[in-house]
Amino acid sequence: MKVELEIECTPEEARAFFGLPNIAPMQDRMMKEMEDRILENIRNLDPETLVNTWMPMTINSWNEMQKMFWSQMGQSMPNMPGMPGFGTPPDDAKAKKPAKDK
To answer: Taking CA 28 as the corner, what is the angle to CA 31 and CA 40, rounded to the nearest 5 degrees?
Structure first.
């Protein structure tokens, strides 16, 4: 025997029928509180703090990371004027320099 029962009701009516609590007011309060907190945090972030939050690495760390990439490629870093630590020849290149005649 097969019985099919179709009931038309709203979600609120179904919750009340099954005895579930109405939590819509609590959800509204929680969403409002979350929205207020997010907006307050956004207002308090100045551009410098925002960049430091997203990119915590210092310039030295970036230089070290770039040196590591260049060493993994088996090449010396290109000469970049004004950037400390860039363009220094590898140790074997220093040894190959001819001695100056006096």
So the answer is: 30
* Chain-centroid distance, C-alpha 98: 49
Residue 27: closest CA among 12, 10, 9: 12
- pTM score: 0.39
Whether residue 78 contacts residue 86, with contact meaning beta carbons closer than 8 Å, is answered with yes
- Please say if the pLDDT value at position 94 is more than 70: no
Report how far residue 46's alpha carbon sits from residue 44's, in angstroms, rounded to the nearest whole number.
6
Concatenated DSSP letters for 23-84?
A: -HHHHHHHHHHHHHHHHHHHHH--HHHHHHHH----HHHHHHHHHHHHHHTT-PPPP-TTST
Exposure on the CB side of residue 35, measured as CA atoms within 13 A? 6
52 alpha carbon, distance to own chain's centre: 11
Distance from chain centroid for Cα 11: 39
